[in-house]
Amino acid sequence: SGNNFEIIIIDDGSPDGTQEIAEQLEKIYGSDKILLRPRERKLGLGTAYIHGMKHATGNFIVIMDADLSHHPKFIPEFIRKQKEGNFDIVSGTRYKGNGGVYGWDLKRKLISRGANFLTQVLLRPGASDLTGSFRLYRKEVLQKLMEKCVSKGYVFQMEMIVRARQLGYTIGEVPISFVDRVYGESKLGGNEIVSFLKGLLTLFATT
């Protein structure tokens, strides 16, 4: 790609063999390119970001799911977009241009669309996809946002964008195709939906 990069893998004691695969990749590509930074148990997405940031040596950080729902082919587009507008954040969007979602049933699509619509109406965030996590951040911007964000779970991604707008950071968007995982189950359930709505109302009241 011509870009100097490292891949930091944060594995929270997952039982699916992620760590073993990462160790194999480390042997193939070298520990300067593949940095495996496991933790003993599931400690949440926000703390995984902080943990990864501590080990990141670059000026920019791309965050993505490791199950390939987020395809690496979009990363060069994120980099191009960042350079083009000197953006602080470049966010992958499923809801703009030729972006889309594949492999979800109607219920899951309706929940995601509904969550985004509600958020747009209440928070006016100036970005089209708030619940996705495939994003590029300027490292110091990500650090600042992590200090400000208090949410957990699905609301966390939304708060990152809302706080970014609040702090005056610039956001670019790149349309992406999101493909649902082939193996494993999604963790989205009734509890997550309730906590999302609570978080949304909290952000509405405090921003």
Automatic annotation (TrEMBL):
Pathway: Protein modification; protein glycosylation. Its cofactor is Ca(2+); Mg(2+); Mn(2+). It catalyses: a di-trans,poly-cis-dolichyl phosphate + GDP-alpha-D-mannose = a di-trans,poly-cis-dolichyl beta-D-mannosyl phosphate + GDP. Residues 3-145 form the Glycosyltransferase 2-like domain. Its EC number is 2.4.1.83. Signal peptide: none annotated. Component of the dolichol-phosphate mannose (DPM) synthase complex. Keywords: Endoplasmic reticulum, Glycosyltransferase, Magnesium, Manganese, Metal-binding, Transferase. This is Dolichol-phosphate mannosyltransferase subunit 1. One of its GO terms (cellular component) is endoplasmic reticulum membrane. Belongs to the glycosyltransferase 2 family. Transfers mannose from GDP-mannose to dolichol monophosphate to form dolichol phosphate mannose (Dol-P-Man) which is the mannosyl donor in pathways leading to N-glycosylation, glycosyl phosphatidylinositol membrane anchoring, and O-mannosylation of proteins; catalytic subunit of the dolichol-phosphate mannose (DPM) synthase complex. GO terms for biological process: dolichol-linked oligosaccharide biosynthetic process; GPI anchor biosynthetic process; protein O-linked glycosylation via mannose. It is an enzyme of class 2 (transferase). It is found in: Endoplasmic reticulum. It comes from Pterocles gutturalis (yellow-throated sandgrouse). InterPro entries: DPM1-like (IPR039528), Glyco_trans_2-like (IPR001173), Nucleotide-diphossugar_trans (IPR029044). One of its GO terms (molecular function) is dolichyl-phosphate beta-D-mannosyltransferase activity.
